[in-house]
Amino acid sequence: LNFVLFIRAMCLIFTSKFITMKYGKKIGQGMFTTAYLDNNTVTLVTDDPIKECAAIFGLAHGRLFPSVIYHEQLENGKFVLLMNYYPRVKGSLKEAMDKEDYKIYSQLRKMCKDCPVQGSQWGRFDYYYNAFKGFPEWVCEELTEALDSCRNYSDNIMIEVSPRNIAVSDGKLILLDIFFCKYKADEKRKRK
Question: Which pTM was predicted?
Answer without folding.
Answer: 0.82
